[in-house]
Amino acid sequence: MLSYFVICFVSFAVSALTLFSGFGLGTILMPAFAIFFPLPIAIAATAVVHLANNIFKVILVGKKADWKVVLKFAIPGAAAAMLGAWLLNRLSALPSIFSYSLGNSVYDMDIIKVVIGILITAFAFLDILPGFQKISFDKKYLPAGGILSGFFGGLSGMQGAMRSAFLIKSGLDKEAFIGTGTVSAVIVDLARLIIYGISFYTLKFTAISESTYRLVAAAIIAAFIGSFIGVRLVKKVTLRIIQLIVGIMLILVGIGIVSGLI
């Protein structure tokens, strides 16, 4: 029951609070799943929730999307996401590189844990550093931005902050920015889920229990409710304090994953 409470609460709260920001659901939800599941399952489960919630948000705000920007940004991003997802599955098959004991427990440091833990920590630092909040990129770099954010989305499930940094200078108003980002996220999620499905679920289907599917379904419903409330109640949100708190928590989670404690 603890897993249901933690994951559903995170899905609901973050989905409601971050609809208008670049601080994404996947950035916080993936570590929540990783507390209870192996990393490849956590990332794939997060992708399913992320996709379902973004499809719901497309219904709410997608009509404002700028499709010229979507094509320039999301198509390269989808291809890069497939590459990142493929690399994730390759890394998950590698053996542990180091083991150590604390008390009566043995902890393994796998290559995938080291890579994902470092990425989580790096993205957390980017989210809490004041200077990164002001970073943006020229419109001509949209394809490159799609590739970078898509690749890291496929590899670690984290793409929101980087996606926002590239889209913010595309000449879009607030509603078009939100709609374009949401549609782009759906395209990237679909691409990486194809690779997760082919490379992960078909090979390790037995690792996914029925309770995992129920938990993912519950998280999707919680995220839907959060987005629904967010659209109606949150018109302009400043999340600096929340970003700092969550950023520090993500740094701790990243360290825990690298060390094998999580």
As a percent range, the share of strand residues is: under 5%
**The biggest beta sheet, please?**
2 strands, antiparallel
H/E series, N to C? HHHHEEHHHHHHH
Name the poorly predicted regions.
none
The total count of helices amounts to: 11
Category from helices, strands and their pairing: mainly alpha
Number of strands: 2
Structural notes for this entry:
By secondary structure, the chain is mainly alpha-helical. It has one domain (2-259). Helix content is 74%, strand content 5%. It has helices spanning 2-17, 25-36, 39-61, 67-92, 111-128, 130-133, 142-156, 160-167, 174-201, 210-233, 240-259, and strands at residues 96-102, 105-110. Helix 3 (39-61) runs parallel beside helix 10 and helix 5 (111-128) packs antiparallel against helix 11. The chain is globular. The two termini are 19 Å apart.
Short description:
The chain has one domain (2-259).
Question: Which secondary structure elements does this structure contain, and how are they paired or packed?
Answer:
Blueprint: H1 2-17, H2 25-36, H3 39-61, H4 67-92, E1 96-102, E2 105-110, H5 111-128, H6 130-133, H7 142-156, H8 160-167, H9 174-201, H10 210-233, H11 240-259
Antiparallel strand pairs: 1-2
